[in-house]
Amino acid sequence: MKKALLATTMVVALMGSATAQELTISGFVEFEAHMGHFYDQKAFKDRSVESLDFAVDGRLDFDYVTSTKSGLEYGMHLKLDLFSSDAHTNEREFGLYYDYKNGGQSDVAFNDGYVFLNSALGNVKLGDTGAAGEASNQLNVPFLAPGAMEISNLASSEAEQVFYSNSFLGVDFEASVDDDSNWGLGIGYSAAVGVATVDLGLSAGEEALAGSLGANIGGLSFGVNYAHEEVGATTEYVAAGASYNLGALTVGAGAETKIAHAVVTGQEYTSNFFAGGSYELADGVVLGVGIANLDSDSCSNWTAVGGSSVPGSCFAAPLSTFNNELIGQGQHLGDDEGRTWTAGASVLISF
After folding, report:
1. 8-350 under CATH 2.40.160.10, yes or no
2. What is the mean pLDDT of the chain?
């Protein structure tokens, strides 16, 4: 869910080489309610929220920027993420507990910390910036119920990067590299085509490529994105969706599919479907609601006969708890769950 953050800003004018300093603090707190099932036998666990589950999500963003009379701008960004949720125990999984969010844990973590320098030569970020890339996920659902993969790029790299960005003739360009020499490139372009605004994004990295195409016509937004990775085995991902804005109300629906190619399982498909909406009750107050139909058992989607008893793949005997002998394609979990549903709602306050 896109979260519009309203900023509280302090501006201090200083004498000397620095002409201005600005500290911006913004953030949100979101109360979430979830219900549903999500089964994942490949991960050797059954994660579920079989009764009503509450959680609290929050964020604080700190942005500091200053500039010199010569035009050099520099500063820093730091994000503090907060999360709290209870834990659910499922006896079928040997008494282990799992939850949609962090296994029912409370967590406070600093993320996305970096320093930056902006000049006429471009913009440089040093730190936890994430890899370069302009491709974006196109599910277009204002509020996603639990279970979405929501992938933009399948490239693997460390969060800490040396990151450069600039614009040439209306084309946005960015590049990054981490300390293991994993690189990323991104190209973005936006243009008006008749009554529509079209956005194109491309991402490239080590053995990975992704692209997205989105359009907006009045209150209607729609798009599609594709990601491809060649690390060990081929993995592909595609998503498409559309949303419509009616002032304070936005509704949308989308679908996603991930295809993992492997020698034992053939092509393993995982497809999910979503619908949701958000309503801006007041300035900075947003209500969200969503529902999802999830592919709850990736073992049932193999296109090849056979299986593996190696932990981390779909299990065979003697794990009779799962009652899954892997006798061929189309197998399910012990309770024969092939697809399942989740639902969620939230109240978000931002500043």
Report:
1. yes
2. 79
